Amino acid sequence: MFYKVKNSEVEGQHQLAEIVPVIISKFRLLIAILLSLLSCFAFALILQWNQRLYQYFLFIKTTEYDCTHYLVSNSTNEKMVCKKIRINNNSYFTYRFLKYKLKDNFFQPVNYIESSVSLDEKSKNLDVLLNTQASREIRQIIYGNSQLQIPIKSIFTYLFQELTSPFYILQYFSVLLWIAEGFIIFAIVLLSFSFLACIINYYLMRRSRIQLQQLATIQQSVTLKDNSIIQGSDLVVGDLFYVHDNQQLNCDSILISGDVMVNEATLTGESIPVPKQSIKELTNEISQNTLFEGTKVIQVSQYQQNIALVIRTGYSSVRGQYFRNVIFPPPPSRQFYLQACKFLLILGLIILTIFTLLYLTQYQYMNYSSKLIIIRYLDVVTWIVPPALPIFFSLAQAISLLRLKSEDIMGSNPIKAEEAGKIDTICFDKTGTLSTLGLQAHDYYPQNDENLDIMACCHHLAIVKNELVGDPLELEMFKKTNWNISFDDQKYFQVTNSLKTFKIIRIFEFSSHLQMMSVVAHNINDNTYTLFIKGSPEKLIQMSVNQLNNTIQEQLQIKTFNGLRVIGLGYKGLLPDQINLDRNVLESQINFSGIFTLENSLKKDTSHVIEELLDSNLDIRVISGDNALTTTHCAFESKIIENKANTLIIDYDQSTDSLLIQDLRQQIPSSSRSSCDGKPGSQYNFILTQLDTIYNNDCNYAITGNLWSVLMQNKVNEVSINQSSDIQQYNQLKQIDEIDQKSIECLNKVIRKTKIFSRMKPHQKKEIVQYLQTQLNKYVMMVGDGANDCSAIAESLVGVSFSSSDASYTSPFSNRSDSIKCVISILLQGRATKRIIIELFQYLVLISVLKFAGTALLQFQGMNFGDFQYIFMNYMSSVPVLILMTLSSKSDKLTPSKPNDDVFAIPNQLQFYNIFIFTSLGCIILSAIVMQHSEQPSIPSPIETYIREGPLNSVMMLANQYYNMLICIILYQSHPFKNKFYQNYPLTIWILGCLIIAVVTNFSNSSRGWLSIVNINDEIFDHSDLIAFSVIICTSILCQICQITMQKVFPTIKPIQK
User: Fold this and answer.
1) Helix spans in 889-1023 (H)
2) Strands, DSSP E only, in 106-156?
C-alpha cells in the first residue's frame, strides 16, 4: 500500500512523489544486531553507508494504522525513512524540515490556507483563517515558529559520521597493515594527517553554516493584535500582528487591513517599492496581498490599522525554500568518480596478478613468512586506492572558488566549480542578464488623449520620503505624460492635467498569470468611471471587442521587430454599479487602444561575450518572458543569431487549436495560421507533423510559451503511456496520442534547433533546462538575474545569478558585477579545475603504483623502504606537490573543447600507462644493475622482517625521489585549459628544489645519511650514481617524447559538439 502526494508550492524544488507506510521488523533488527556483532560491527557500517539496504533490510511494508515510519520517495527517486508523528489523531511526518499531513488518503505539506479552507470555498471562508479554533500551542507544534534554524552538526556527530565512513575505514585498514609490517611511525603520521584533514573540513563546514544562519536570522520585536509584544522569531501561523515602517518580516503573511509598500529586493534582487493591498477574499492568486518573509516595509497606510495574518513560517515560506535548497542541493554527478573506482579496481587486479606471478616465480623460493606474504597481498589495496584522494579533490574545488571570489564571483557549492568544466550549452535570460534592467520611454501610438489617460492612470506609483517611486516601467510611462500626481487625503492617488482630473479608486496589481494590470478611475470632471488596463499586447488584443486597427497592428510588428519592449493599452467604460465587480468580470470585453514602447538596451559587453562563447562552439540559447519579436531582436543584437530577418516565430493558439507561424523572412513580417482537424487525439500529432515540415528550413527558430506548454503536456502523456502496466490501456492511450519514436525524434529536433524561447513562465524555463539535459544529453548552464529564474538555475548543472537576493543563494554562482563576462571566467575555471582533478588522480595513483613497483623489486633481496623513507615519499615530497598542483591558474581564452574526463578513454589510458611503463622500466633496469653488480645481502630464512638499508634500497629510493617530481612535469597539460607549468611559481620552485635535493643526495656522500642511503659507488661500482641518474633521466625524456607525440595523435581533450 502506498499514498500519493498532493504537491504544493511550499515544497519548492523538493517535491515528494510517493509515501509507503513501514514498520521496523523486530526479527530483521535482531538479525542485523547478530550480524553486526559477528562481523565486529562491519554489517552495521554497511547499513550506515547504504541507505537503500538499510531501508529494505530493517523495514517492512504495513498499513498506515500500524506503521511507525514512512518510506518517502521524491521526484528524483531519492528515498528516505521518516518517523511517523501523531498530532490530534492525525498522521504527520517531517521531510527536510517540512511537515506533511495525511488527509483524504493523500499526503500534503501542511499549509495553513489549504488546510483551513478548501479551494472551492476560499471566496466565502476568509473568516475561518481569522477565527481558527486551534490553540496557539497546537499551531506551533504543527506549523512551527518563524525561526529559520540552520542545522549545524556537533563536532562529535560530525567526527562519528566521518570517521566511520568508507574513506576512513580504508585508512584504518592501511594503518593496521603498516603497523603489522613494522612501520609504526609512518602509520601514526598517516592517521594524524587524515584526522587533521577531518577537523579542518569540520571547521570550514561549521563556518559556512554559521554564516548561513546569520543571513537567515531576523531579530526584532513584533506587536500582536492583542497588544502583547513577542520576538518576531516566535510568530506562529494564525497570529495577527501590526505592520509598521522599517520592519523586516519574519514570515509570510497576508495583509488583512491597511495598505503597505514593501521592498522585495531580498526575493527579486530589484530594489523597487511594491504595493500590497489588504485582502478581501481568498483566491488562487494572493501574492498581491502577501508580505513575504525577508522583505522590508518602507511605508504603511496612515489612515487605517495595518494588520497581517501569519500564513507560512520557517522553511515553508518562500524565503525558507531558498535556504532549504542551499541545505539540500541536488545530488552531484558522480560519473568521473565511479569510473575512477572501476579503473582502480581493474588496476588492482592487474597489480595482484603481477604480485602473484612474482610470488610463484620468486618469492616462494625465498622462504618469506606467511605473515609477510598475506600482508603484502592485503597491502595492494592501500597502494592502489590512495586514501587521501578525496581530500585533494576537495582542495582543488575550494581553491577554484577562491580564485573566482577574487573576480567578484561568489560560489556556494565547490563541486559545481568542477562541473562547470563539462558545460556545452548556456541558456541566458534576457532582461537584466543580456540586457540592462533599466528602461527608457520611447513613444506611444497612436498619440491621442485616450492613450495618455491610460498612461497617466494605469500604475501603482507611490511617494516615499517625498520621492515618486515604483516600478521603473511605470515611472517611465507616467513621466512621458507630463501629468501631475497627488497622494493627499486619499487611499491611492489622483492625477491631473490642464483639462482632466482622475481619482484612482481601485487597483488590480500586475499578474504574471494574467499578463496585465488595471485600475478603476473616476473622472472628476464629468463624473464617469473607466477601467484602464495595460499588459501584454497579445493578451489585450485577444480580450478586445473592437476591430484592431491595421495601422496599430503594423506599428506593433515594427516596434517589436526593432527590439522595443511593447506594452498594450486598453480601456472599458463602467457604470457606477459596476465599479465593485470582481476583477475577472471587469477585465473582459475591453477596447484595445494602442501601444506604449520602451527601450531596453544590451549591456555593454554582451555581444562581445556571446561572440567569444560562440567561437568556442558552445550552444547558446535565450529563454525570456518577453515578446517573441523583442526577444528575437535581443538575440540578434547579442549575436546569438546572425540574421534576424531569417527567423520563424512559432506560436500556438489554444482557443482555436491553431499553429501560428510568423515569417520574418518576408519584407513585411507576416503571420499564417494552420488549424488542427479537430479529431480527438490528433492535436499533438498535427503539431509535430507541421513542426517537422517547418524545421526542415534553414533559418532561425523561436517558439513561445503557449507552444511549449502544449508540447510538454503531451510529453507527459507519453511518459504515462510508457509507464502503464495495463496493456489495453496502453494501446488505447497510444492510439489517442499517436506517440511513436518518429514523434519523439521530431520533438527533439524542434528543441535542438530552437535558439529563442519567448513568453516563457518560470516553470517553463525549468522545463526547457530539464529537457535539454535529460532528452538531449546536454550539460546546461543557466544564467539569470532574479527569482523568476530560480527554479531553472537550480535545475541546471551549473547556475549563475546576477541578483543579490536570497534567491541567489540557491545558485551555485552569483556575480556581484553587472557583466556577463563572469560566465567566461566560470567556464575557464571549471575546465582548469576538471583538468587539475584528472591530473591529481593520475599523479596520486602513479606514484602509489611506482612505490609498489619499488617495493616489489626490493623484495627480491628481502628489503623494503624504511619508516622515514615512506614518510618522506608520501608526505614531505608528494603531498606538497599535490597541494601546489591545485594552484595552477586557468587559461585566458576559451577554446572549442573541454577536458576529457572519461577515465577509460583511449587518450587518458595511453597517458597513464605510458608513464607507468617507462617509470617501471627505469626501476627494473636500475634493480637489475644493482643486483648484478652488488653483493647479495645476508637474507635470513625464514624472512620475518625486512632489511631496510642497502644499495638496492638506496637506488629505489633515489628513483622514487626523482620520478615523483618528473611525473608531475610529464603529466602537466597546460594548453588549452591552464597556464604554462612555470607560471605556477610555487609548484615550479618546489619541483626544482626537490630535484636539486635529489641530485645532491645522489652525488654527495655527506648528504645521504638523512634518507638512510648508502654510498652506491662503494657498494656497486664507480660512477654507479651517474649511471642511475642517466637511466632515470633517459626514461623520463623518452616518456615525455611519447607523451607529446600521443597528445598530438590522441589528444586528452573532447571537442564540443553543438
Assistant:
1) 906-933, 951-971, 985-1003, 1016-1019
2) 106-109
Q: Which residue in 830, 791, 1024 sits closest to 321, CA to CA? A: 791
| 607 SS3 class | helix
Find all residues with CB under 8 Å of 565, minimum gap 6, and list them: 439, 473, 597, 598, 599, 600, 626, 627, 630
In Å, the largest CA–CA distance within the chain is 120
Return the closest-CA partner of residue 594 out of 532, 669, 645: 532
- Vertex 245 angle, CA 239 and 246, to 5°: 100
Determine the average pLDDT of the residues in 347-360: 88
One-letter amino acid of 858: L
State what percent of residues in the chain have pLDDT above 90: 45
What pLDDT does 683 receive? 66
- Planar angle of CA 327, 329, 331, nearest 5 degrees: 135
* pLDDT tens sequence across 974-1015: 889 999 999 999 999 999 999 999 999 888 877 778 888 888
How far is the C-alpha of 831 from the C-alpha of 975, rounded, in Å?
A: 11
Contact 524/563 with Cβ under 8 angstroms?
no
Buried b (16+ CB within 10 A) or exposed e, 350-383: ebeeebeebbeeebeeeebeeebbeebeebbbbb
336/565 Cα distance (integer angstroms): 45
Q: What's the rounded mean pLDDT across residues 544-561? A: 85
Q: Which of 45, 22, 49 is nearest to 32 (CA)?
A: 45
- Mean pLDDT for 889-908 is 93
pLDDT value at residue 43: 93
Answer yes or no: are the C-beta atoms of 645 and 677 closer than 8 Å. Answer: no
* Residues 842 and 354: beta-carbon distance below 8 Å: no
Q: Which three cell numbers stand for residue 755?
A: 535558439
CA distance 449 to 497: 11
Among 99-108, 585-594, 724-733, the minimum mean pLDDT is found in: 724-733
Q: Using an 8 Å Cβ cutoff, are 954 and 1014 in contact?
A: yes
> Would you state the pLDDT for residue 591?
94
Structural contact between residues 568 and 627, judged by C-beta atoms closer than 8 angstroms:
no
Average pLDDT over residues 647-654: 86
Q: What predicted TM-score, i.e. pTM, was given to this entire model?
A: 0.85
Contact, 248 vs 296, CB < 8 A? yes
Least confident of 316-330, 413-427, 709-723: 709-723
The mean pLDDT value for 1041-1051 works out to: 93
Q: Rounded distance, CA 415 to CA 420, Å?
A: 9
Cell numbers placing 430: 534576457
**C-alpha cell belonging to residue 828:** 575557464
DSSP string covering 430-492 = TBTTTB-S--EEEEEES-SHHHHHHHHHSS--EEETTEEES-HHHHHHHHHHT-EEE-TTSSS
